[in-house]
Amino acid sequence: MTIEAEGTITYQSFGLGVWALTANDTTYELFEPPAELQQEGLAIKVTGNIRDDIMTVAMIGPVLEVQNFEILSS
Amino acid sequence: MKKWLLLLLFFAGFSWAIANFQGLSAQGQYDSIIFDFKESLSSAEIERKVESLSTQFQTDLTYNSQFSLSDHVFIAKGDEQLLKAIQNSGIKEFTEFVEPNYTYQALFSPNDPDFDKQWNLKSINMEAAWQASRGRGTTVAVIDTGIAPVADLKRTRLVPGYDFVNDRANATDDHGHGTHVAGTIAQSTNNNFGVAGIAYEAQLMPLKVLGRSGSGTVSDIAESIRFAADNGADVINMSLGGGGESQLMREAIEYAHQKGVVIVAAAGNAARSAVEFPARYPHVIGVSALDSEGQKAPYSNYGAGVDISAPGGSLRGNDRLGGILQNTINPRDGSSIFAAFQGTSMASPHVAGVAALIRSIGVQSPDQVEQVLKQSAVAVKDDAANYFGTGKLDASRAVRLAAQKSFGFNGFMGWLRNGFFLGPRFWFDARAVQWGHKLLMLATAAIIAWLFRLPWNWSMGWGLILGSTGLFILRCFHLVDLPHWPLRVLGSSLPELGGAISGANALNPLTANVLIALGLIVLLLSHPQLKWFALGGSAGITACLAVSALVAPQVVWFGSTAVAQGFLGINALLCLALFYLASKSASRSA
Q1: Which residues of A touch B268 (CB under 8 A)?
Q2: What fold is seen in the domain B115-407?
Q3: Of B123, B246, B300, B345, which is the active-site residue?
Q4: pLDDT in tens, B525-576
Q5: Could you tell me where the DSSP H helices lie in B88-202?
Q6: Which helix (H) or strand (E) holds B46?
Q7: Residue-level pLDDT at B6
Q8: How far is A74 from chain B (nearest CA, A)?
Q9: What is the ipTM of this complex?
Q10: Tens of pLDDT along B380-433?
Q11: B72, B123, B174, B177: the active-site residue
Q12: What is B29-103's CATH superfamily?
């Protein structure tokens, strides 16, 4: 399933830590995010796939595999 | 000779089991001695005696408390040797008794130096639970990122697992999560190093399904569940979640549950109502997380699917004390570190560890283990949103309840099966028999015999048993690699014989009818002793057919239909009529 989302990058302390996208109503766990997105507080707009076939240690929300992104502000 | 040998083996096995049960009491230790002086002595006499004893044995007799002088009680530093010397010194003349001042160390406290930082283990009363079980004889599969051989797992036993990510036998950890989770379950404990784990005498089975990023596919996880079930795991821990519902995974969980594996999974960390998969599947114990104050951790999922809650910790800012501390690896260089993590990932292994303790005590079926966990949990009032499931995990209450439950027949058989008495070649499956039906049949047969005022003797008793239920307990026994049919036949009543020989659970109309009773009566009614067997047998067959007709009318060729019910009912009535006529005739001739 492909989605578009807009929100802020956060780093959450589960296990050894995980990168997340906090959008308006949902927190997405970013699946192997590119290095440019690994920066707390970054506002971004992304297009990506929701990976329903994947389970993780963080369990903070749907797993989002980023395909395209646009940095709105850092 | 054989009988004696079996009896000897039985007692050896029994004694071994008893000897290995650590019990709930601590061993007596003391480093001081109590003196209780006779009531008849004056205070001045006592003071003089105290002075002379102190000089003679070079130890200071002191008051135990402010009440001691009036109670005439004193204590002195001393060991066993000194106690014996004092007792042999003629002190009996002026004391009621002199005895060891036992230190009541009710709890086992491990010597791991950082055990004090493990608030989580204290909050589930681990010290009291360790008195009864440390998980020996059980295997816990850790389906996670693998397990690295860190220093504080050195004494923990690992059994072969598998790395489903890289398709290789060595399931080591390149992430750190799995090693941490494994530590909570079975960190090497009382080893003067690091921290403690819950079921530290259990074996761990490392199953790597999550890669370096901490994620993995549903197909690998489902495969690993089957691997665990096929390779002797007693408990599975899954500190992972997410994704959608999967038929593959549901079937794998069903398979493991049927093979007797207890399955525990984390509720998830999205702070939302309803747990993640796999905690959401049936037969999976879903665990929500508590912080160090026993409140729901802010991140923990709750609501539907939460069965129980356990410490998961909560890290506020830089305060690591609120987390769960275990030994793991630093994923950057693989070095061994002690790290405090938070998450329902940390809560789940607490429950898995305690499940291993329960299994070790002798509670076998996964449903019963779940029941013990839930019943022994400390219930939380006014939990409308289901933050806590049935309550907060309590290891001490769980092992006590498990000991009560396993004290009966199942626990005894558990002892035998786990011991060397008949070893792994012996299997007892209580579910092979519908106990309620069997007891009802026996009771009905006895009532019929009693109503017709038949005499009680051995022939009658055997007739009643073999006619109604047979030696049904034998059906529960399996000897591995040997055919089961002889035990099945020996464990069957006369009407059940046809079904037992063919291996069906249903009654076979060839034997489940009035003809067997008729045959017994025709052949044996004239014999002075065996006629009671024939009568008891007829009463038993009546009971078997009648109870089957009413509660479980399963007949080969007829199925569970009204026809089957009618067939059994008519034969039961015919049997009863036959029994009535024969009993009158027998009573006349008696």
Answers
A1: 59-60
A2: Rossmann fold (3.40.50)
A3: B345
A4: 888 888 889 989 999 999 999 999 888 778 878 877 888 889 999 999 999 9
A5: 119-123, 126-130, 177-186
A6: helix B43-57
A7: 40
A8: 22
A9: 0.93
A10: 988 999 999 999 999 999 998 998 887 655 556 545 443 333 344 555 655 567
A11: B177
A12: Peptidase S8 propeptide/proteinase inhibitor I9 (3.30.70.80)
